[in-house]
């Protein structure tokens, strides 16, 4: 939630900051704001809504500076107003702060600061940080010490960009929210993720927990950075990573929305997953084999991929894996123990509930294996072992290619567990070919026509069994997230235990069939709903007269669901377009839920 960007250098960096914010809009777009330090003044500009069409040169021609910060907000504390938008200032206007995270003890801090005479303007938790630094400046010898001291008093999470009217300095700091430093010639960038500044800098430092970076001018006048631990103040040697993906990879590549671009990339994602190194898979498989009990913990789409993984490991490897929603984990985590393995799945690697799961697992002495998509993310660093899923940068809030990359990685793990990595690799390459067929132009036309037909329905359901149960959930999650049609997925076996009461004339039901013994059972379910008037859409390896609409998928055995889901991702997208909704801006959602 929320994206931050910073620039420190020798030229006007505001253009780069605005560009960075546009790239970070997926993290929140309730409002946005900018601050620049120029001639020992801090300029501030804030607006409600999305930064999308804002044109700096045209809309704000004289706004800029060599030290700048920006923020795009997903509101947590305080409504969507210009006053609550970041950057926030100290009383004296000396300190400006942008923040991603939550200051959990902000009420106590605010009360204490108010007693000392500080006047607050907003209802946000962030504003306390600016006032706290101002307060600390009264006793500390310099701005760096004041910031360190203030941060030590904050409970909660933060990724921060801080500028000071009185000093040529930009400070970044992180705890439990992501922050990356970008290094270019004589200039630096800060960003919540790499694409925020990748066009300008491809050498990066992923800040670790409780690290702070101070950007300033050295004695020679050149821009320099100092990395340090917030608590001890000790300098840390920075590990510089060279980012190999191009800025273009993070762009829409000519498509109207990232969602469609990312869905069309899925054959490539599967091929990349098939190329995962054998040794890496075997090390992860060894952890699974060694574990006394295995859990899979994740949220939303990633949890659905984990559910698919748990069925796959049960069916192919005879391993019992218990899926748990990370948001519900705290009611079970006291039962974790040494010998357990917690497999966490996350696109962003920054989901707060998932990171909390890692902490609980470690506290109990359990091991953590992460399937994670973002290199250098908090999850990747916190896990005992991690495998990078191969979705590449997923910008769209609606997770599509990350889902199939996670399903495919479970397939590779399943292969490695049975000593069949090469065989599984081959099967995955067939999945890629099958998806290639689904995304062919003629099929897209068919799905668009279906979307037109369904765009006015108030309710829609999904049914699946065994390996396709996860798809029944995921297809409906995608449809509700982007088209706002009420959609629910059920297990075929649960149909008669309640959901069948919802079936009425013409209600669409998407039925996912797996090429195994469960096919007969799901076809029976399809008949049961059709008998009650449902419009049955079959997504299957073979047609059946019960299906009024048939979406064919190649028979890929246990991997068939990985291709099948692509139909419903596309359906969700076209439903949104039919309803004149913007798939890039699903209401209230943001990529990377970094707060519990
Ligand atoms: O980054 P993560 O995979 O940990 O995110 C988990 C969920 O928040 C995410 O999958 C969410 O459900 C998406 N909006 C799905 O489209």
What does this structure look like?
With 596 residues, this protein is an alpha/beta fold. It has three domains: 3-247, Glutamine Phosphoribosylpyrophosphate, subunit 1, domain 1, CATH 3.60.20.10; 252-439, Rossmann fold; 441-584, Glucose-6-phosphate isomerase like protein, domain 1 (Rossmann fold, 3-Layer(aba) Sandwich), CATH 3.40.50. Helices cover 35% and strands 23% of the residues. It contains 17 helices and 24 strands. The strands form four sheets. An eight-stranded antiparallel β-sheet has the order 3-2-4-1-10-9-11-14, with helices on one face. Strands 5-6-7-8-12-13 form a six-stranded antiparallel β-sheet, with helices on one face. Strands 16-15-17-18-19 form a five-stranded parallel β-sheet, sandwiched between helices. The longest helix is centred in the C-terminal third of the chain and has 19 residues, at 560-578. It is globular and about 75 Å long. The model has no long low-confidence stretch (mean pLDDT 93). 5-amino-5-deoxy-1-O-phosphono-D-mannitol (M6R) binds at residues 299-302, 346-348, 351, 354, 397-399, 481, 589, 592-593.
Fill in the keyword field for this structure.
596 residues; alpha/beta; Glutamine Phosphoribosylpyrophosphate, subunit 1, domain 1; Rossmann fold; 3 domains; six-stranded antiparallel beta sheet; 35% helix; globular; binds 5-amino-5-deoxy-1-O-phosphono-D-mannitol
